[in-house]
# Entry
Amino acid sequence: MSETRYTDQHEWIRTDGGTATVGITKYAAEQLGDVVYVELPTPGKKLAAGGEAAVVESVKAASEVYTPASGEVTEANDALAAEPAKVNADPEGAGWFFKMKLANAAELSKLMTKDQYDKFVKGL
Amino acid sequence: MRYLPLTPDDRRAMLAKIGAGSIDDLFRDVPQSARNAKFPLPPHAGEIEVERTLTKLARENVAAGSEPFFCGAGAYRHHVPASVDHLIQRSEFLTSYTPYQPEVAQGTLQMLFEFQTQVALLTGMEVANASMYDGSTAAAEAVLMAQRITRRGRVVLSSALHPHYSETIRTLAELHGALVMPPVTPGRAEDLASLIDNQTACVVVQNPDVFGMLRDLKPIAEAAHAKGALLIAIVTEIVSLGLIEPPGATGADIVAAEGQSIGNGLNFGGPYVGLFATREKFIRQMPGRLAGETVDANGRRGYVLTLSTREQHIRREKATSNICTNSGLCALAFTIHLSLLGEEGLKRLARLNHARAVQLADRLCKVKGVQLVTAIFFNEFTLKLPKPAVEVVDALAGKGVIAGVRASRLYPHERSASDLLIVAATELNTDDDIAAYQTALAEVV
# Structure
């Protein structure tokens, strides 16, 4: 069963069994503007929750993307290298950043649900 | 308008806020002995007296242009056409600073774009930036860049890399990993390959090296790449690229060079202009500004600063470089001079330099006891003298010949360097200069 959770740094994480997919939210993509480059972690890299995992660059800004949970990177979305605009077009779908094997699925319970995140964004 | 940044009340309030009793309290970390140092300076003097005194002092110097001059070792005396100075002194170039809305200054950006194009063509690389502070800081930035790309810290330095460059690299990059260097062997190949391991970020090799010897970078590039390390090629005499294979063709991943030789005088050691070029795949890790060519909404050609997200005004502490200075005016002089020379002109200039150096080496080696250490060279070579080089240099200076840079100045701790003299010849050295050197050297050794 898949479930999507959100961080206050505007990343989303979708779990499917032991693996999870991570990306940035629609709100983050809109704030950044046209994404021109994404630097992704290499598979095999071990990440600790809240640590830097990727960098996303738009025309006038560059931001770090933090991993919502701990674990090991299993796959990076290499399609973003040729087509970074996917991040703007479909941030929570084809614009995903990387997949990871979770070290501790319980970490996700600390993150926001969709309703909580939507409220959080409204308050910004 | 009066400009009064702080009143005594402001100062008192600020000091009270941070708990300091007086301004002097802020300098408590400076040892007492270094505070209020007394300098033995003469009393205040009028303009006429100052000018007289300083003119007298200045006369004790020998200007590079006033005597036969053969110093190189990273700074070269070449002819700079009067048109270069005339053009760079136009106020649009001379007094304008990097505009904070850079696209307003299309002329500046176009000039930087042309400069980058020239540097990329000269070095045989795919991309070049809009210049760096000088050759040695460009070299250190190249090492930092290689450490970022490879995520490794260890750095292998050729021992024939100019020691000022090694020191700059040590200052800026040593925190990220160990620097290793083989023994100094002037004029002979060194074993760099065995020092490269799979923790090595890069190998840094200068060509022609500090002793003037030409190196074959290909085997070093292969050895580096086999271990996943990068090759950084350093060029201190950029005119050499008019004659020798560009580093890009020999497997270099980053080229850091000093551009002073083209368009710029010796300038007492600075300002100089750092050249920096790399492969396109590494462009996002490259330091420095980058001008790009584009079209505006009406399809007209225009220039912009691009990939600015690497830079510190956007990226802050994660920027690819925190040396903000480039050398715009020196880069402009470089670009104007190189444009005047053209491709053929540069080749001719390089051939002329080499021919002068060969003639000089042949003549000096006729002097008894003098040997050539560097068998293959461009416009600079190293001689082994039958006496300590420091004595020979001083004696020749007394005879009006500035003989070169003794190796012991650059390698003060290498005993084997004491009888070595690094000698450069350029298009400015005449037959008379060369004859004067030979005659004076024969009298001295």
In short: The mean pLDDT of chain B is 94. The two ends of chain B are 68 Å apart (CA to CA). The CA atoms of residues 148 and 371 of chain B lie 43 Å apart. The interface with chain A takes residues 284, 308-309, 314-315, 318 of chain B (CB under 8 Å).
